[in-house]
Amino acid sequence: MTAQISRTARRFSTVIAPQLTKLDPVPCLQSYTKLLISIVDITKLHNALENYILHNATVFEPIDFEVTYQSNSTPGIVLRAQIYVDEVVLFENQKRLVSVTLADPDSGLDGPTVAKIRHPISGIKMFEIVDFAHSGNLQIMSSTDDTSRCQIDTTTNPIRKLLAFCGMTFVPEWWLVRQEGTELGKIMPKSSFFKENAVEVSWGETTDNELRLLMLCFGLVQIVREGFPQLLHLIRDYRQRRGNA
CA-CA distances (angstroms) from residue 114 to 11, 80, 110, 193? Predict the structure, then answer.
């Protein structure tokens, strides 16, 4: 009986375990080279901030974002994301694609880690977004073999600085994604003059599916950290209060 249980367990681990230690491909990403991450309802964020500041709210309602493409001036929804106090979850319809845990940059507990990218079901850490030199030049590191999947360079120019000064973009920087010196794509903050802050993620035709997903994860991290820093502050404070409860 014990031997049979052991054989069953080995077969189970052989079939199931690999599926819980790698991210599934997202085929729909192959149809696009440029996607936009934006908040669905800014009033929901304003209400969350108001409830927190004025009413000492103890419940954090998730904030909805959507990943869209532009077709004949009409956006089409490709994926959606929800930001919870513990994680950012990217969905395709109802399927969880990936979970991203935001690090606390001020706590000192996370070291150079900016965010952790986890398997959506098992919660196993698959990748880390790290800033080893605290210089704004980051890497996405694989947690399985400690290798760099890609580099992310923070860059700017005088025009972007002027646009940020005039309030036409929320930060003067954008981020170039490279692999072994070859540029794969970029994450670009979009104009905040006429609409809410958004981030555009673009990549080349030959960029593989996993890298497209990782770039979207970085875009989600940056829309929170840079586009809506008040949301990051809210999440951080909720965590602290819950930890002290």
Answer: 37, 22, 8, 28
Give pTM, 2 decimals.
0.86
Domain residues for the domain of 171 are 2-244
In this structure, the number of other CB atoms found within 10 A of the CB of residue 204 comes to 13
- pLDDT tens string 125-156: 999 999 887 777 899 999 888 788 899 999 98
- Rounded Cα gap, residues 115 and 60, in angstroms: 20
Q: Output Rg (C-alpha) for the chain, integer angstroms.
A: 19
Domain count, the chain: 1
